[in-house]
Amino acid sequence: MSAVTNVLMVGVGGQGIILASSILAEVAAESGLDVKKSEVHGMAQRGGAVSSHVRFGKKVYSPLIPAGEADILFGSELLETYRWLPYLKPEGRIIANLQRIDPPAVFRGEAKYPEGLADKLAQRDSGLIAFDALKEAVALGDARVATVMLAGALSARLEFEEALWLKKVRELVPKKAVEINLKAFQRGRMLAGLAA
Amino acid sequence: MRKILSGNEAIARGAFEAGCEVAAAYPGTPSTEILESITQYPEVKAEWSINEKVALELASGASYAGARSLAAMKHVGLNVAADPLFTLSYTGVQGGLVVVTADDPNLYSSQNEQDNRHYARAAKLPMLEPSDSEEARRFTALAFGLSEQYDCPVLLRSTTRISHGEGLVELEDRKPGPVTKKAVKDPAKYVMLPGYARPRHPLVEERMKKLKEFAENFPENKIEPGDPQIGIIASGVAYQYAREAFPHAGFLKLGMVWPLPEKLIRKFAQSVEKLYVVEELDPFLEENIRAMGLNPVGKEAFPITGELSPELVRTGVLGPSAAKKIEFDKTIPDRPPNLCAGCPHRGVFYALKKLRAFVCGDIGCYTLAAQPPLKALHTCLCMGAGIGQSFGMEKALGPGEKVVAVIGDSTFFHSGITPLIDIIYNQGKSTVIILDNLTTAMTGRQGHPGSGVSIYGRPAARISLEKLGEALGIRTVVIDPFEVAQVEKVLKEEMEDGVPSLVIARAPCVLIPEFKKMKKPAFAVSEDQCTGCKICLQLACPAISWVDKPDKEKKRKGYAQIDELSCTGCGICSQVCGDAAILREEKN
Predict the structure, then answer these.
(1) Helix A17-30 vs helix A162-172: angle between axes, to the nearest 10 degrees?
(2) CATH code for the domain defined by B2-217
(3) Residue from the list B243, B442, B548 with its beta carbon closest to the beta carbon of A109
(4) CA separation (Å) from A143 to A136, A139, A179, B436?
(5) A12 shares contact with chain B (CB less than 8 Å)
(6) Sorting pLDDT into bands at 50, 70 and 90, what band is B558?
(7) pLDDT of residue B10
(8) pLDDT category, A1, cuts 50, 70, 90?
(9) Which chain B residues are Cβ-neighbours of A87 within 8 angstroms?
(10) Domain ranges of chain B
(11) B222-322 maps to which CATH number?
């Protein structure tokens, strides 16, 4: 219906979803597109769930992605990615971190972390890009770059130039951590290439 | 130059460009970032005010002196500032005065979802409502001009999706405000004695008539012609949802939601076959349009509660059959926000729960203690309310009931001092606990009068809570919230002793720099010692988790474990553990 691309980015407070969605929005804007991004701050901190809607195209009206119209679901935590699966278009694509973060009821032993979620994601997107970004980031030398690594994987699913992505990563991550974030971004691109 | 800005950043930018010189606010989601963002412009003198009333009074003083000024607040903050607002409508301004109200449909971080468009009508003031970041910037600048032109404060209404949504904004240079700065002695305008105020009221009514005429030709109230079968009147983010749902419909987009352009609305209504009013929350536009004798479709089709969305607009117009069937898996666990590992509030609430106290609460991170498993906070009404409520309960229930008030440090300065004085003056016996974490934590760690930090992150005057308590003549005790037994003992004594007392539980929020000095080595659970009693899990600490592993020999279903990385070494869990199973890691 429209030429707007919808990317729903979800995760847990503190993982860097807002940073990742800012990188994407800046890349789209610098490519000459109209962009809107929407998220809720405030209570979303303190380990709560976080979601950010990023929409870009010739002209974007609603800051929210209409239900069931996400082209890409980007999740930095497995359960959160699964939670938002109904927002994905039938032909939508998924980039998922396999990392699990227990919600309060689970860490208190009152509920179980659901099993088989990665399989459920794969049933929706046969070309699912999924890896344990935390493990990969630790292997690279800094656990904090996990979500930027996932952004690298996301870049493999969108038609923006790699140089533009790298420029925006450079601009938006903390000065001291530019090099490791660029490395993480490229590692993410590579992992997506292998998975695609 | 184009830049991606949030609505809040765009409001700050618009104020800067319009030559705003003074800006004040008390932090409150979703408005907080307006003032945070304005601090990047050295031309604007910004401050965190003690509360919204003071913020507006300060901005009005700057306006009287000829400076363009802005006060920003969340929707409920305008309740606090309503007193100066209504009479500012009479006195008017010198320099442009803009009052930003950020409403929170769907209560993402609020205690109600009131619709502040009613304030514009009630206080007889114009209100602009932007629908994206670019309009947020532009409308803010327009509001300053309107304020001077019509000699009144101008309300700018945002909502969470505008304030926290981001979009492309065209940046312009700063232009100075047009008014000469000077303290003008004009009692008939600025001294609202009845004799002076009475003749101001007809001027207010006259102004609103003129503003109504202005609204007819205001370029931001515009008809966007389209398919005449569906004609939609909308403003703010609701316009964007409606446009998304019906890109080809005819629109009357209102940039000014009060007063309304009656002729323009009639003209639009005549040009379409079916008229809809799409608005979030109350039928504000709808009822005023009905009063014109028109009959739009409104709240019978679109919900009055919560926020709208493109789907809700689509199904409102086309009927429920047009709804996309989206079903979430409701069997999976939620992920609510939680008190942080090492949060100094945790020990106080654990003690209060043990003492079976009725806890009159307040607004801040600590309101999260109402949730299971702590369930140790029993009221939350508005900023500062808990203290007065605890005194009211004491009066109703008589002595001997275990009722206490808890309030955060920032909230106490905002509106907890006056009810505390009320208790002392009226010889109450209440116990008031200030949870002093040295910051305004929930909204993102802003400074306040007790923190010693200004909005610019620089040193500011620091007001001592204990000296304040002493000056008021109330018994004041400072406790370390991490010493659980001591906390329990002090609270028990203070609740039972029959005199009023102020208990200050002081330790820094784990998210501020002062905390670094407090951090200690992590604790660990001795897997061997743990009996699996789960008492530590009742603390709701995100660093403690349960391992399901039944062990017949040990007669337990599993054991607790502590995540070494998130544990701050606060030690509360080791104090509540009856089996001495939780020890500092270094000792293991």
Answers:
(1) 130
(2) 3.40.50.970
(3) B548
(4) 8, 8, 14, 32
(5) yes
(6) very high
(7) 98
(8) very low
(9) 326
(10) 2-217, 222-322, 345-517, 523-587
(11) 3.40.50.920
Residue A194 Cα, gap to closest chain B Cα (Å):
31
Q: How far is CA A165 from CA A8, A24, A92, B212, in A?
A: 18, 8, 22, 49
d(CA B156, CA B140) in angstroms, rounded, equals: 7
What CATH number corresponds to the domain at position A86?
3.40.920.10
**Residue B525 pLDDT exceeds 70:** yes
For the whole prediction, is pTM greater than 0.95?
yes
When pLDDT is averaged across residues B467-486 and rounded to a whole number, the result is 97
Nearest residue on chain A to B563, alpha-carbon basis: A107
What is the average per-residue pLDDT within A55-80?
Answer: 97
Contact residues on chain A for B328, CB-CB shorter than 8 A: 83, 86
The architecture in CATH of the region B345-517 reads 3-Layer(aba) Sandwich (3.40)
Number of helices (H) and strands (E) in chain B: give both, helices first: 21, 22
How far apart (Å, rounded) are the C-alpha atoms in residues B140 and B128?
A: 8
Strands B227-234 and B275-278: parallel
Cβ of A13 within 8 Å of Cβ of B337? The answer is: yes
Domains B345-517 and B523-587 share a fold: no
- Count: domains in chain A: 1
If you ran DSSP here, which 8-state letter would residue B446 be given?
Answer: B
CB contact under 8 A, A83 and B329: yes
What pLDDT is stored for residue A47 in this prediction? Answer: 80
Partner-chain contact B337 A47, CB within 8 Å: yes
Contact (CB<8Å) B373/A35: no
Token pair, residue B197, equals 């105020």
The domain defined by B523-587 carries CATH number 3.30.70.20: yes
Local structure of residue B406 (DSSP, 8 states):
E
Eight-class DSSP state of B459:
B
Chain B residues touching A75 at Cβ < 8 A: none
Domain around A107: 5-195
Its ipTM equals 0.95
- b/e code A101-137 from CB counts within 10 Å (16+ = b): bbbbbbbbbebebbeebeeebeebbeebbbbebbebb
pLDDT in the model for residue B588? 44
